[in-house]
Design goal:
With about 140 residues, this protein is of the alpha/beta class. Helix content is about 35%, strand content about 15%. The protein is built from 4 helices and 4 strands. Strands 2-1-3-4 form a 4-stranded parallel β-sheet. Helix 1 links the parallel strand 1 and strand 2. The two termini are about 30 Å apart. About 35% of the residues are buried.
């Protein structure tokens, strides 16, 4: 059964969409059983067309994603929650931890820098998850 990583950004139209798509690709490449999703606190009507083009150039189709508002239920169902610049503290269910990637540049100011920052964070996350998924072999056992 897949564990879901929920990526959040204010409009669910750029950062969270790129993060979810890049993380899904990395997880698949590493054989991780992880699903990804994207939502926002003030969703736009559609994904930013520049994001659709940028991701398409990398072979990733995000054109079908429909931005939606994050809910407390979605937060509580997620295995991990990653925020890229939005505050969900008012709706955060007890016991849910939010990892913050607030240093990622704004896509409106530097779309490629934003993607590169997200890509670096996603790679680190996927590497950590792959390390966690490795079975521990006791010393002296081969």
């Amino acid at each position: 059964m897949s564990r879901t990583i929920l990526f959040l950004c204010p409009h669910a139209a750029a950062k969270s969409v790129m993060a979810a798509a890049l993380c899904a690709r990395e997880a698949a490449a590493r054989g991780l059983d992880v699903a990804t999703d994207a939502a926002g606190t003030e969703p736009d009507p559609e994904v930013n067309p520049r994001v659709v083009s940028l991701m398409a150039a990398e072979g990733i189709d995000v054109s079908r994603h429909r931005p939606r508002r994050v809910t407390p239920e979605a937060l509580s169902r997620a295995w991990r929650v990653v925020s890229l610049g939005c505050d969900v503290s008012a709706m955060l269910p007890r016991g849910v931890h939010v990892e913050r990637w607030d240093e990622v540049p704004l896509p409106s100011a530097d779309l490629r820098g934003c993607r590169d920052g997200i890509h670096a964070r996603v790679n680190a996350l996927a590497a950590a998850l792959a390390h966690e998924a490795r079975p521990v072999v006791p010393a002296g056992v081969s």
